[in-house]
Specification:
Blueprint: H1 13-64, E1 68-73, E2 76-82, E3 89-96, E4 101-104, E5 109-110, E6 116-117, E7 121-126, E8 129-135, E9 141-145
Antiparallel strand pairs: 1-2, 1-5, 2-3, 4-7, 5-6, 7-8, 8-9
Length: about 150
């Protein structure tokens, strides 16, 4: 009959500490890599969110037969509809765009015919780069990477 010693059945305290130390290093390097790529994803996610809001404003204008517009703030976008009774703009929703700065030269207004007035160029940028979103009079929305500035 073999006698099992205590040390033969598992890991020692030093083995466990070394394993935890190696696991900690892996988590540290992985989180650092994710934090470095975060601005790129914030830029793309915000650009996509702006495109979605613009498309939403266009289709709401068409289907509800009421003009809608998108108002751009430094760190967000407001979707508004025109109240036919008071002729004032009423905010429907606001979406914050963290990690980016939004610059627009105009406030595009979408009409029930599917057209847009106040043609706009929107620049979305952060430390990782920038995208330019343009809106044509037909309501077409085009997004391209913007060249780096001076």
């Amino acid at each position: 009959m073999d006698i099992i010693k205590f040390n033969d059945r598992g890991f020692s305290l030093i083995d466990v500490l070394i394993g935890i130390f190696i696991l900690g290093l892996i988590v540290t390097f992985a989180s650092y890599a994710l934090l470095q790529s975060s601005p790129r994803y914030q830029l793309r996610r915000s650009t996509w969110a702006i495109q979605v809001k613009l498309i939403q404003a266009r289709y709401l204008a068409i289907f509800k037969n009421i003009p809608h517009r998108c108002v751009f703030k430094k760190t967000g976008i407001v979707l508004e509809k025109k109240d036919s009774a008071s002729q004032k703009w009423i905010a429907i929703s606001y979406q914050e765009l963290p990690g980016v700065v939004v610059e627009a030269n105009n406030t595009p207004t979408f009409y029930p015919q599917g057209t847009v007035s106040n043609l706009a160029s929107i620049l979305v940028h952060n430390a990782n780069g920038s995208f330019k979103i343009t809106i044509a009079i037909s309501g077409r929305i085009k997004t391209v990477p913007a060249p780096p500035g001076p």
